[in-house]
Every structure is written in C-alpha cells, then in structure tokens.
Amino acid sequence: MLQLGIKRVMDVLFALLALVVLSGVLLSISLAIKLDSKGPVLFKQERLGKNGKAFHIYKFRTMIVGAETKGRGIFQDENDDRITKVGKLLRMTSLDELPQLFNILKGEMSFIGPRPPLTYYPYPADEYTDEQKVRFQFLPGMTGYAQVMGRNSLSWEEKIHYDVDYVDNYSLGLDMKIFILTIYKIMQREHVHHPEAAETPLNKKA
C-alpha cells in the first residue's frame, strides 16, 4: 500500500528531525531523572507490536525502581506515591514517551497507530479474537485513534474497537487528524488517568 510506504518514510525522517531538535530536551530530562531518584533513565517494557510480535518499548522512567513489586503492583493512579516528582511532570506533558523515537527508527513503532498493549494485558496475544487481531496489522504508535477518542476513559474493548476502525479506514489524512487532536489533548490534559485506577497498568497511561 503506497500510503503505508509514505507513512514509514515520514516516520523515519520526522523521528530523526525530532531527535536532533529535541536533543537538548532529552539530555535535560535524563539529567533531571538521575538527580531526582536512583535508577536508570529509561524504562523498558515488553509490549505486543506488529503481527503480535513482542518488543521492548522505551520510556523515560517516571516511577521508583521496582515499582511493579510494591504498592498496587502493576496498577497505578494519578496520586500513586511511587511516581517520582520529575515523573509526574513527564506524565502530565507526555514527555516520558519521547524515547519511543528510537523504537520508530528501529522499525518497531510509528508516530500514529494502535498503542502497543502489554504482552499479557488485557489479553495474551493468542487470546485476541480474529477481529481484534486486525489491530496488529499495523505498527503500534506513540499515539493513536483510541487515544484521541478517549484514552484511559475508554474500556479496553472500546480502545480495540477504535484500533480496528483505524486499520480498516487508514489514510494519511486520518493520521494528520489524529496528530492534531493529540496535540490538543496533551494541552488540555484530557483523559490522562482512568476513572478506575485498577484499570490502568503500571507505566501504561494509554
């Protein structure tokens, strides 16, 4: 599909441009994380990508080391005391997602696409229905249709429905619409946290 080829070229070019333009920001965030709390700058987590293949997604670390073994385990909410001071700001602005630019360059992600779920939540790869598996036909994105339509205010079934709809009706124009809406949602801080904390996995805002 020609549009997907153009999408990939644009992903690489804009990811490279973003890394150059934001290099100072990336360095400043890395330094702030190191000064704020003990542990690595980056957080790595296995997610399901294209064709249901697992890969490691990169994020700036926003929680204390070993957070998944403390408190509520893999679930978190807005006031979780495991979130660091710098982490709160990064989450609020979605700057913690910036390391995914490297996932894009590696061919594991795109700027726009279905968000990659955990390998075991909401379902293991082989437990998605055939209809739901359509969402895995595309590279996962830093943002996507489900995120601009409700993000964590949506149930997983609703998110998957929007993901499938995105794949079935894909166009570069739809990507542009999602990109613009993503900027608006970030500025408005809409739907950052799920109304039920138990529905929001650790380090997974969307």
UniProtKB/TrEMBL annotation:
UniProt KW keywords: Transferase
Keyword Cell membrane: no
InterPro entries associated with the record: Bact_transf
Protein's UniProt keywords contain Transferase: yes
Gene Ontology molecular-function annotations: transferase activity
Top-level taxonomic group: Bacteria
Pfam families in alphabetical order: Bac_transf
Ranges of residues in domain Bacterial sugar transferase: 7-187
Family the UniProt entry places it in: Belongs to the bacterial sugar transferase family.
Protein name: Sugar transferase
